[in-house]
Design brief:
The chain is α+β, with helices and mostly antiparallel strands. Helices cover 40% and strands 18% of the residues. It has a three-stranded antiparallel β-sheet. A hairpin with a 5-residue loop joins strand 1 and strand 2. The model has no long low-confidence stretch (mean pLDDT 89).
């Protein structure tokens, strides 16, 4: 982990990074926000998330259906949501809510990139310290 970069994150940025590490759908981030971040307007939260995406640390993807080799149904990150579509998507309040019908297919999910993993994971050198 880049201790310097991780320590420099705001609480909201840290919550988004945790959700991306967990490959959680966007509404899951509410459980990682502190009380102050939960009261922020959506456009402000969207701006924070977009900045992390623009740094290359997080991707926004659509949840896709997946079937395990054993034949069990599940979910996985699917297609990348184009950057130019994200502002409108993130300013839509329903994007930040769990689907009423419980069907996550097509929902926005956050995924940590390789660059993001360098921020959230300790390097072998740091682990040796």
């Amino acid at each position: 982990m880049s201790t310097y970069e991780w320590d420099a994150l705001t609480t909201a940025e840290e919550a988004f990074m945790v959700s991306a590490y967990e490959i959680d759908i966007l509404p899951g981030v509410w459980g990682d926000f502190d009380e102050a971040d939960q009261s922020r307007p959506l456009d402000e939260l969207a701006g924070i998330l977009l900045a992390l995406i623009d740094r290359g640390w997080i991707e926004a993807r659509r949840v896709a259906a997946w079937t395990s080799p054993a034949g069990k149904d599940g979910f996985q990150p699917g297609e990348l949501i184009p950057r130019d579509q994200l502002p409108a998507l993130l300013n839509d309040a329903t994007t930040w809510e769990y689907p009423d019908d419980g069907d996550w297919i097509g929902a926005c999910t956050l995924v940590e990139t390789e660059a993001g993993k360098k921020v959230s994971h300790r390097s072998p050198e740091e682990m040796a310290e």
